[in-house]
Amino acid sequence: MTEEQCTGEYEDEDVRNERSRVFRLTSNPQQFQQDEGPQAQPVVLVKSLRKEFSQESLCGNCCCCADDEPPKKKISVRSLSIGVDAGEVLGLLGHNGAGKTTTMKIMTGETAPTRGTVRVAGHSITINQDDAFKTLGYCPQHDALWKNVTVREHLELYARIRGVRSKDLNRLISTYLTGLHINEHANKQTQHCSGGTRRKLSYAMAMVGAPKVVLLDEPSTGMDPKSKRFLWDTILASFHGKRCAMLTTHSMEEADALCSRVGIMVKGELRCLGSTQHLKNLYGAGYTLEIKLKHIENVYSETPVESQPSSSQEQLQLDQSTDHIAPVISNCIDNRSMALRNFVTDLFPSATLEESFADRLVYSVPQQAVSSLAECFSRLEKAKTELDIEEYSFSQTTLEQVFLKFAHYDEETSSVQ
Ligand SMILES: Nc1ncnc2c1ncn2[C@@H]1O[C@H](COP(=O)(O)OP(=O)(O)OP(=O)(O)O)[C@@H](O)[C@H]1O
């Protein structure tokens, strides 16, 4: 899948391509290797995944459905095809109920897919489950811990299962306990631990022993900032070479910081997929330019000493003439603001003024208006002294804005499932 092909419209074609590729892969693996080479296969390969839940599982005894009505279905994942390469952290984003957790649950065998296949490190999770699961680490959204087993014992068990050598065990466990600030809870049974500590333990259990593929379902939820920092650092340091991770999060900042690519799911469908930079370029509004002028008093205080009143007599004269100062300042503000507006219009003719206050202007600048960032910054720097600019920021569209665009798209196109 190329990054250009990352809109929902193209997905049918993608699914067809994926199907024929799966067919080739399963019918003649040698042929596949010749065509695409052993390197071409992603570590995680999800193909045409679909998950339907019956109405009964939604409403228990199904007392609300009439007998003669066909059972209703809830489609949680639709035609999801996605690959995660070695060295990659792929972020799955989406509002509540978008289908992210269901996808992960299928990948870990917790939920059976209605259709589609998942291969982890070359092993099918349905045909070759044991081998597939040996390579997987999983931090589920809801902590799955033994309540009468201690924090340390959980980590020891997982580390040993993953083949960590005895001599490395203590050092490794203490790295996680210290980094996540749960040392003092190490010997507590998890039933006596707080939600935050349990969350940190779930994350450590997924990571300890360096499994080849790690699935992290909202791992940082409820964590304090220092532990979150450790989590970010370990994720950024871990997934190089042959390992990879899939991460769901509601924090766009986190996705931007950790993920090499992100996919946005809306109502079970993957609506876009690409690097964060690519998605910002493609769907973002471009840049936001915010300029704050110096406070007018600061401009006066910066005027040379000789032009300021030197004696109390002069100060008195100045005070007596204060009636004239307000309109003068007001004129000055208008002139400075006008000069600034002219400057921005000259720099970015297609920019739109979004917000305007006496000393602060916010512009939206389209992507195409910026051909050279270096030139923009050089002109802004030069204008700083000429136009009494206190500070400015020129930043690209955030992932949050891209995400909201898709949420809006969803509202416009929502259909009954
Ligand atoms: N066992 C189930 N039975 C019926 N419906 C289910 C079941 N599990 C999930 N769903 C439905 O599938 C949809 C997708 O849920 P899922 O938990 O995968 O979303 P999500 O994107 O992970 O949301 P969140 O961010 O809240 O975790 C939801 O509408 C949910 O109600």
What does the model show?
The structure is a single chain. The protein is of the alpha/beta class and 417 residues long. It has two domains: 13-21 and 42-52 and 73-278, 3-Layer(aba) Sandwich (Rossmann fold); 285-295 and 336-396, ACT domain (Alpha-Beta Plaits), CATH 3.30.70.260. It is 43% helix and 21% strand. The chain contains 16 helices and 14 strands. It has helices spanning 11-27, 29-36, 55-59, 100-107, 129-134, 151-161, 166-179, 195-207, 225-238, 252-258, 276-283, 296-301, 312-320, 325-347, 373-386, 399-413; strands spanning 44-54, 73-84, 89-93, 115-120, 123-124, 136-139, 213-217, 244-248, 261-266, 269-275, 287-293, 352-356, 360-365, 389-396. The strands form three sheets. Strands 6-7-8-3-9-10 form a six-stranded mixed sheet, with helices on both faces. A four-stranded antiparallel sheet has the order 2-1-4-5, with helices on both faces. The protein has a four-stranded antiparallel sheet with strand order 12-13-11-14, with helices on one face. Strand 4 (115-120) and strand 5 form a beta hairpin. Helix 1 (11-27) packs across helix 2 (29-36) and helix 6 (151-161) packs across helix 7 (166-179). The longest helix has 23 residues, at 325-347. It is globular. The site of adenosine-5'-triphosphate (ATP) has 14 residues, from helix 3, strand 2 and helix 4.
